[in-house]
């Protein structure tokens, strides 16, 4: 297969500095709302990159909420990503809205959200997802899928009655951004890129060459 032949000409009219909101969170809100309206598959999916002294990792996680404080996702605190975050809180995230010829790139540091906020979100999940969080030793080696299914069955029996509590090894992280880049495809690969950088609690915007 010749991957060199996989080409697409970008046709967007682009974005200008004057069109951008001075607040990157407001600009992100506009773009993700447009991604939802365009009925993209999982517009809240983001690629999350983490690293430590042992190496690097990248995977897709789901953004669950965001505000002026940052971007929140949830995971197992014993997972590989969490162990890397414990050692190095600096991360990068990417929203690849390719059907809209757009990307949003975020760099920053990660912090845990409050246990209360994790409990609130966990309680909103379907029960099967709650049980899955209890059953899966995320990132651990499994000799067979049956082990995972057996543990899920055990959790079903354990929490057959009543609410499923938040596991003490599961919860939310917040990405506190230092940079947020908005990328809009343009013809001839002359894309529009605008980088918001947090300097002394203020956001500075610069255009980047494509």
Question: How do the strands and helices of this protein lay out in sequence?
Answer:
Blueprint: H1 24-37, E1 45-52, E2 55-62, E3 65-67, E4 70-76, H2 80-87, E5 90-97, E6 102-112, H3 115-124, H4 127-135, H5 145-158, E7 170-184, E8 192-199, E9 202-208
Antiparallel strand pairs: 1-2, 1-5, 3-4, 4-7, 5-6, 6-7, 7-8, 8-9
Helix pairs in contact: 4-5
What does this structure look like?
With 210 residues, this protein is of the alpha+beta class. The chain has one domain: Electron Transport, Fmn-binding Protein, Chain A (Pnp Oxidase, Chain A, Roll). Strand 5 and strand 6 form a beta hairpin. The longest helix has 14 residues.
| Structural shape | globular
- The count of strands amounts to 9
Q: Which structural category fits the helices and strands?
A: alpha+beta
What is the succession of H and E elements? HEEEEHEEHHHEEE
Query: Considering the protein shown, what is the CATH homologous superfamily?
Result: Electron Transport, Fmn-binding Protein, Chain A
In total, the number of domains comes to 1
Largest sheet: 9 strands, antiparallel
Name the CATH architecture.
Roll
Low-confidence stretches: none
Strand content: 35-45%
Distance between the termini: 28 Å
SS summary, helix count: 5
CATH class: Mainly Beta
Q: What percentage of residues falls in helices of 4 or more residues?
A: 25-40%
* CATH fold category name: Pnp Oxidase, Chain A
What characteristics describe this protein?
single chain, 210 residues, alpha+beta, Pnp Oxidase, Chain A, nine-stranded antiparallel β-sheet, 5 helices
């Amino acid at each position: 297969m010749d991957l060199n032949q996989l080409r697409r000409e970008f046709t967007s009219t682009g974005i200008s500095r004057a069109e951008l909101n001075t607040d990157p969170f407001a600009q992100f809100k506009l773009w993700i709302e447009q991604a939802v309206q365009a009925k993209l598959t999982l517009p809240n999916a983001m690629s999350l990159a983490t690293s430590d002294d042992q190496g690097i990792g990248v995977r897709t996680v789901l953004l669950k909420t965001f505000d002026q404080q940052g971007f929140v996702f949830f995971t197992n605190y014993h997972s590989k990503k969490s162990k890397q975050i414990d050692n190095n809180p600096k991360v990068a995230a990417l929203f690849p809205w390719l059907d809209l010829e757009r990307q949003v790139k975020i760099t920053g540091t990660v912090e845990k959200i409050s246990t209360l906020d994790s409990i609130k979100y966990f309680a909103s999940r379907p029960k099967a997802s709650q049980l899955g969080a209890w059953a899966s030793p995320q990132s651990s080696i499994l000799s067979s899928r049956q082990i995972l299914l057996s543990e899920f069955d055990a959790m079903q029996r354990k929490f057959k009655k009543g609410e499923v509590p938040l596991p003490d090894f599961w919860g939310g992280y917040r990405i506190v951004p230092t940079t947020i880049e908005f990328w809009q495809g343009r013809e001839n690969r002359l894309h529009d890129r605008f980088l918001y950088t947090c300097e002394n609690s203020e956001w500075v915007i610069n255009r980047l060459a494509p």
